[in-house]
Amino acid sequence: MSVIPVDFRAPHLHHGGLSPAHHPESPLALSATMLGAALYMPAHRADLATLAHGPKRSTARSLIFCTEDAVHERDLEMALHQLATLLPKLEPEPPFRFIRPRTPAVLRRLLRMEGIERIQGFVLPKFGPRTLSDWLRVWDDRCGHWLMPILETAETFERRQMEILRDLLDDSGLRERVLCLRIGGNDLLNLLGLRRARGATIYDTPLRAVITDLVCVFHPAGYRLSAPVFERLDTPEVLVREVEADLQHGLVGKTAIHPAQIPVIESLYQVSREDYELASAVLAPEAAAVFKLHETFCEPATHRRWAVGILERARVFGVASFAHQD
After folding, report:
1. Which sign does the torsion angle of CA 226, 230, 236, 241 carry?
2. Domains and CATH numbers, the chain
3. pTM for the model
4. DSSP β-ladder status, 146-151 and 181-183
5. How confident is the model over 274-284, as pLDDT tens digits?
């Protein structure tokens, strides 16, 4: 398999609210798709400074420095000290960098650190209707940071609560700062007292219905959702099946727990030649109201949002071309 690079002149495509609006003070125009497979790392790691400038053996497009579940309470001050030392030294170059604060109080401390404007934003854990006001009380948008709230509390199982959260986000002034909503799969399974079996994808668990509900609540409102982490390193074939299901649910972007997962995930984000040609035809200015291509029915009025997402993925990850063997 080879990848055909695709060059779009526009920084990113907008249509129908699929991409977040560009904040005029934002340090970098960014879309959720551009994050790819986000690599988490505990902020108290001794080699944090080295990894923060781009892991040499990793192709990570985005890094998330964690001060929450991946850091023991006794190591929190060390993690914050390391971040305070690191931030002023960060250069404005890839990968994209985010911090997951442990609590709103920790977010307040981070926002006061020198160099905090050098990261792209924050990943907010345990996010829901009951905690939104706690985060808002400490939030400071002077640096134009992006936010990625994590849906991982018991409220996530209640569709009505997620509808309330969607409406609260719209009313809070945070909507334009929400790059995507992340689904905390392991926390949600923990609330059910479950852990996926070896060989099972997240869609073989009760979370399949939860993910479907979240897509139906948030996607029509213009919010993007990223996919839950896959926690096993020795079953890449199962990871492949899970990412394929993620894409079928409209989820682009997935937490990676190890650099080895990144090429597996992002190879599946490459767009097939057929989908690329279909999407391009749907968005062509001269497209007919209804037409057939590759033995597929196309109607721009109903396939436009899909087509925009496909071309965004193609711009970031390329178009896959499968060479035929003699």
Report:
1. negative
2. 31-267 (3.20.20.60), 274-321 (no CATH)
3. 0.87
4. parallel
5. 999 999 999 99
